[in-house]
């Protein structure tokens, strides 16, 4: 996978763009002097980009595809982007191009999703100022209601700085410590631990530095929380790899909270925790082995991670599955046969040389792995719902203590669910993640699941979705009135913010 990064040298300010595009009735039309080939090419790109999502992502998507830089600074006021191309598009070479996107709404921007007061629900009040790893973070730095390049709601800000993985008696802290112990025992004094690195990182750290392709879906506003167009809440702990390589670290474990926009069910939550492990080898280490560096690192990787899986799960059956990650080659997933099923434990591989080269090292190889702590803790401690990790209910928290991996969680009685269905005609910009964020913003952790239960398109081409929302508290019975009130608010917000038509 290779892509050309924008060099910046051709960027100039564009005052009077000579080429204009207008979007009318969902179709793009051209009012310009572009040659036909260029016209077709750009139309295809824009349509493709629109099918992925809408304006902001479109600008990112196009800029990455064309390897150009868009000017989006005045986006909220004037609905157009303008950009200069580099030498990838000959027909654009000397011309700045503007794309007009009139009346584009941003259903996923913060202003429509931040739901103020309700986000403290069931938890602690939201602090206005946090400190993570020595970095002071004010709420206004992360949640910017009027900035369309920001899609971080209050409910997500409320999770920043919680650092569940640093609580010694929390299942995630217990699991982290157990993994640390494994590496300390097998590689005494070698692995450095980082668990306080700030989750607010640049797009470059999160994606570019680890070779995530420009059109990779994880970069979209639908999948990632953007603080602004250059800054995100990390969506994986791999965001720290390049910097740690650059700073000369050779053996390290990074644990942290990561953020992904997602659907709602018992195993998905927009904030979860990952651990990244990395080990570097120098030529002396593999020269005597008869293998090349990559083969040697792959063999060492498998040995170390099979040992880790045994340390966590006992003597289980394991298998390696080939997979793809942009930052490793070869790449694998480790699966174990546990409680009657194959369970994916982690992703890993041999670090791409381009990442190491960029950090100034040409003579080394490295392995890297990433694992989701919740996923493993749910299995090891028998925790049935991912929301429980955030519970402050003593009936949950008192069941776990430092050093005790695998103590089985005893459910306190399960409270009855309450189902509410809602149907609406969707529009082009509709995504399930946006819907889930609205529901989560209103109902907080009272929402257990959002499921699409019906989907059809009528003769006029209008598509209807029906979603079933399951409300259930893990701590108490909910009253009808309480749920009805939430549901009314959900319906209102879904209609107003996602611009869908309720049926
Ligand atoms: N970052 C990957 C993820 O989030 C996991 C991973 C890390 C895979 C390191 C390979 C190497 O899915």
UniProtKB/TrEMBL annotation:
The UniProt entry's sequence similarity note says: Belongs to the class-II aminoacyl-tRNA synthetase family.
Q: What is the lineage of its organism?
A: Eukaryota, Viridiplantae, Streptophyta, Embryophyta, Tracheophyta
Q: Which residues form the FDX-ACB domain?
A: 413-503
For this protein, the record's InterPro entries field holds: aa-tRNA-synth_II, aa-tRNA-synth_II/BPL/LPL, Fdx_antiC-bd, Fdx_antiC-bd_sf, Phenylalanyl-tRNA_Synthase
- Report domain Aminoacyl-transfer RNA synthetases class-II family profile positions: 256-417
Q: Name one GO biological process term.
A: phenylalanyl-tRNA aminoacylation
Q: What is its EC number?
A: 6.1.1.20
The record's annotation in SUPFAM superfamilies points to:
Anticodon-binding domain of PheRS, Class II aaRS and biotin synthetases
Instruction: Name the species this protein comes from.
Output: Carex littledalei
Q: Where in the cell is it found?
A: Mitochondrion matrix
Q: Chief subcellular site?
A: mitochondrion
Per UniProt, the enzyme's principal EC class comes to ligase
Q: Which reaction does it catalyse?
A: tRNA(Phe) + L-phenylalanine + ATP = L-phenylalanyl-tRNA(Phe) + AMP + diphosphate + H(+)
A molecular function (GO) held by this record is: tRNA binding
Q: What is this protein called?
A: phenylalanine--tRNA ligase
GO CC annotations? mitochondrial matrix
**The organism sits in which domain of life?**
Eukaryota
Function recorded in the entry: Is responsible for the charging of tRNA(Phe) with phenylalanine in mitochondrial translation.
- List the Gene3D superfamilies: Bira Bifunctional Protein, Domain 2, Ferrodoxin-fold anticodon-binding domain
CDD domains in the cross-refs: PheRS_alpha_core
- Print the keywords alphabetically: Aminoacyl-tRNA synthetase, ATP-binding, Ligase, Mitochondrion, Nucleotide-binding, Protein biosynthesis, Transit peptide
